[in-house]
Design a protein that fits this description.
Blueprint (H helix, E strand, L loop, with lengths): L1 E4 L11 E2 L2 E2 L11 E2 L6 E7 L5 E5 L3 E2 L12 H9 L5 E3 L7 H18 L5 E4 L19 H6 L2 H5 L23 H10 L7 H18 L1 H8 L6 E8 L7 H13 L7 H5 L8 H14 L4 E8 L11 H11 L8 H18 L5 H5 L3 E3 L7 E3 L20 E4 L2 E4 L5 E2 L7 E10 L2 E17 L4 E12 L4 E3 L5 E3 H23 L1
Parallel strand pairs: 5-8, 10-11
Antiparallel strand pairs: 1-9, 2-3, 4-7, 5-6, 12-13, 13-16, 14-15, 17-18, 18-19, 20-21
Helix pairs in contact: 6-10, 8-10, 11-12
């Protein structure tokens, strides 16, 4: 029997987790690049070239720097040594996302997982069991990607699954199986392959069986597990979108909420793996297994919140003070409720311009509540700028509304998204062009928003226009617009003047 620790490397393998993401990543910011042919433990890498495009780099290609993911506490030599000493091949190819940050987060997660896999504290004990001849597994066409594995699950098709948004990183050669633990052991036994087992493998096999037991006997064991009747909805919220948040981290947080409803709060600690071999990947798997084991007692909601990364205020502090002062005049028109609302908002603008930013206030700028088959509603302090509807009627007093049986409450007005008034005004004008009269309409206000800074910033756009009425609208070669009626009227005037000249000549 042989006992040994996993290979050691200069960097020490310590992964610092911040907000659910490791601060260690495969980012070779050194001027030198790594020839992947020198590293047998990388089979495929999604890398970032100099122009920011994502390239598929195969073995033998040059691995470029991946932006935004730093090798904290590592240098170039350490990274190379780390990768060469990983106990298993590492496949870091699943790094596509809708944003650069999302891509980098996935890369960091995968590299963190790789580092944890070569934890030097892992003890290996190898012993002989029988004298059968060791055989190589003949993969043939049976090697699968992690996506193949998930798609092969019966529930994926039966429950109409379509897109795999996130999944655990693929670091090994895989073969799909409805029970990778039991059937994997049977495969090794029948085909004479060696077998490797971790404490996490054995314990999670037990907890998955326990989960089947609980779900099959939910009411019989309810009193032993939870303190409530029926199903309680639990929610974990994150800023971001479905393509940028870390659902694994959210699953781990969800189990913390489950604890509050358990008869024995230590049950979650008992269920979740916590061994010398346990990685964050194992903790995520354990968390989802725990959620599934308790699904007869809870429903789970991952709430994703949109947000604005940065706000830029133009103008001086005096400018914002002037607006605050001007608002007070609205009191003369009986608009006290609106003045109070605007004053508190503008005070935050003034503080921000002075450098005293309340990020909580700016995060409350807007909140949208979707109403299923019914209307959607908008709240947040932005609704202070749509308190009057198209007819000038006040709609700024609603602070609570029932949305599909769920009471939606806010400190700011709640407005139906369909009732957001237009952000511009129009006015009729007449034009007397040397005796020819035209009816026209002027527009002024917010008829668009501007997309700027390499399409990463939005700004309201003020505009104005004058349009002639009762004419056929058309676009000219110069890019401006004119009315065909204007051309016709001008032609008529010329004809009238010409006729007068002819009449005078005849006389």
């Amino acid at each position: 029997m042989a006992t040994s620790a996993a290979p050691t490397t200069p960097c020490g393998y310590n992964v610092t987790w911040r907000e659910g993401k490791p601060s260690v990543g495969l980012s070779l910011h050194a001027p030198t690049s790594i020839d992947m042919g020198e590293c047998p433990y990388i089979t495929h890498v999604q890398a970032d070239d100099d122009n920011g495009d994502l390239d598929n780099c195969a073995v033998g290609d040059t691995l470029q720097s991946i932006k935004g993911v730093s090798c904290v506490g590592m240098n170039f030599t350490d990274v190379v040594a780390l990768l060469k000493n990983l106990p298993k091949p590492i496949d870091l190819h699943f790094h596509k996302a809708s944003t650069t940050n999302g891509r980098d987060a996935k890369c960091a997660h995968d590299v963190g997982h790789a580092i944890e896999n070569c934890n030097p504290t892992t003890v290996k004990t190898t012993f002989a069991v029988s004298s059968v001849q060791l055989r190589q597994y003949l993969t043939g066409d049976h090697v699968d990607t992690m996506d193949d594995v998930i798609v092969s699950c019966e529930e994926f098709a039966n429950q109409g699954c379509r897109d795999i948004v996130q999944r655990s990183p693929t670091t090994e050669t895989l073969v799909s199986s409805s029970n990778g633990f039991v059937r994997g052991v049977v495969q090794a036994y029948n085909q004479h392959q060696n077998l490797e087992l971790r404490p996490d493998d054995v314990w999670l096999a037990i907890t998955i069986q326990f989960g089947l037991f609980v779900n099959g006997n939910a009411e019989a064991v309810r009193a032993s597990l939870v303190k409530h009747d029926g199903q309680t909805e639990l929610e974990v919220r994150r800023d971001g979108s479905i393509y940028t948040v870390d659902f694994g981290d959210m699953a781990m947080e969800m189990t913390q909420q489950v604890e509050e409803y358990l008869v024995d709060p230590t049950l979650s600690q008992w269920l979740l793996p916590g061994f010398s071999t346990t990685t964050d990947h194992d903790r995520i798997v354990g968390s989802v297994v725990m959620m599934a084991s308790m699904k007869k007692y809870f429903t789970y909601l991952f709430g994703l919140c949109c947000g604005i990364p940065n706000v830029t205020l133009l103008g001086t502090v005096d400018d914002w003070l002037a607006i605050r002062s001007r608002v007070d005049k609205l009191l003369e028109f009986g608009l006290g409720e609106w003045v109070v609302m605007l004053a508190s908002i503008l005070d935050e603008f003034i503080d921000a311009a002075k450098g005293n930013v309340d990020t909580g206030f700016w995060q409350r700028i807007c909140h949208e509540k979707e109403g299923g088959s019914g209307p959607s509603y908008l709240s947040g302090w932005i609704t202070a700028f749509c308190v009057f509807n198209e007819d000038g009627k006040w709609q700024g007093s609603v602070r609570a509304i029932d949305v599909d049986g769920d009471m939606f409450e806010s400190e700011y007005p709640i407005v139906d998204m369909d009732d957001i008034p237009r952000g511009y005004l129009t006015v009729d004008v007449k034009i007397n062009d040397n005796g020819v009269t035209y009816d026209a309409l002027m527009f002024a206000g917010y008829m668009a928003f501007q997309v700027k800074d390499d399409r990463r910033e939005i700004a309201p756009h003020l505009g104005w226009a004058l349009a002639l009425k009762n004419g056929e609208w058309r676009k000219t070669d110069s890019g401006t617009h004119e009315s065909s009626m204007a051309v016709t009227a001008a032609d008529e005037l010329k004809m009238a003047n010409l006729q007068e000249m002819l009449d005078a000549f005849d006389e």
